[in-house]
Design brief:
It is a single chain. The protein is of the alpha+beta class. The protein folds into two domains: about 140 residues, Fructose-1,6-Bisphosphatase, subunit A, domain 1 (Fructose-1,6-Bisphosphatase, Chain A, domain 1, 2-Layer Sandwich), CATH 3.30.540.10; about 120 residues, 3-Layer(aba) Sandwich (D-Maltodextrin-Binding Protein, domain 2). Helices cover about 35% and strands about 25% of the residues. Strands 3-4-5-6-7-8-9 form a seven-stranded mixed β-sheet, sandwiched between helices. A five-stranded mixed β-sheet has the order 11-10-12-16-13, with helices on both faces. A two-stranded antiparallel sheet has the order 1-2. Helix 1 runs antiparallel to helix 2, helix 4 crosses helix 7 and helix 5 runs parallel beside helix 6. The protein is globular and about 50 Å long. The termini are far apart.
Length: about 280
């Protein structure tokens, strides 16, 4: 159960909505783009929101560690002793944001004792805020509407009928043809944000999401995987091992996951994980 007061939850919600709405306004204006690495970009909007969210969470939780994507110095807190760690992605899906798309989000996740406890995802274009955690529940709010429970929806899996698999562009280019050849009923779904991809599975738009290209980091995954686990989804690697947030599973310098990530409903994981693993292994 998440140990947060209602006033703390409300403050987090307001902070994310404010940040996301700022991003939405700035997306319609001019902003600068910088290249951090190969196919990895950051904008002046990312950096402004990173500072806003880092400051806000330090004020809310002064005794906790707060790690953000665009402030590299905060990554040192991962190896320090904190009761709780907060991971913040000011814009998840920056490429989509730069391209004027709708599939980007502001995300926050909380980890305690090496386990994701809670997550928040705010999609500004859709004015949708989702939050929750295992033992706490899932909640959503659209615009100025009252918050309500979010009920996970498992899509039916019927032999011989098509089913939806969420997959990123890079993974589809590398593995899509081979997966489709082995699983001819599959339909690929693509979205920009890691968090929105996970939400697509939680809400029944797809039965499974796979991430295979090895670049995803803790600020990308903590919030979404906390929500996925609260929804009853399985979060595992290609061998079926749980996704872990400590030890050798994480690169200490970059906070990158070493495990491939599968997020899906149990029946989908059970039926399709072995086939996808064979494809990735070249079998």
């Amino acid at each position: 159960m998440v140990s947060l007061s209602q006033s703390e939850i409300s403050a987090i919600n307001q902070l994310l909505v404010s940040a996301g709405n700022y991003a939405l306004v700035q997306s319609r204006q001019s902003f600068q783009i910088f290249e951090k690495g190969v196919d990895d970009y950051v904008t002046t909007v990312d950096r402004a929101l990173d500072h806003k969210l880092l400051t806000g969470f330090h004020q809310l939780f002064p005794e906790d560690g707060v790690i953000t994507e665009e402030n590299q110095a905060t990554a040192r807190q991962f190896s320090q002793t904190y009761r709780r760690l907060w991971f913040i992605d000011p814009i998840d899906g920056t490429d989509d944001f730069i391209g004027g798309g709708a599939s980007y989000a502001v995300m926050v996740g909380q980890v305690a004792n090496g386990v994701p406890q809670a997550g928040w995802i705010y999609a500004p274009v859709h004015q949708q805020l989702v939050w929750g955690g295992k033992g706490w529940g899932l909640f959503q709010q659209h615009g100025a509407e009252e918050p309500q429970s979010l009920v996970p929806q498992e899509p039916p899996l019927v032999d011989g009928q098509s089913w939806a698999l969420v997959i990123g562009d890079k993974d589809e280019r590398r593995f899509g043809a081979a997966i489709a050849a082995r699983l001819p009923q599959v339909n690929f779904v693509s979205l920009g944000s890691f968090g929105l991809k996970v939400l697509a599975v939680i809400t029944g738009q797809a039965g499974l999401y796979i991430y295979l290209n090895g670049r995803v980091k803790l600020w990308d995954t903590t919030g979404p995987l906390a929500l996925a686990q609260a929804a009853g989804l399985i979060c595992c690697d290609l061998a079926g091992n749980p996704i872990t947030f400590t030890g050798e599973a994480i690169e200490a310098d970059t906070l990158m996951h070493r495990q491939p990530i599968l997020v899906g409903w149990p029946r989908y994981i059970e039926q399709f994980r072995p086939v996808i693993r064979q494809v990735v292994d070249g079998g």
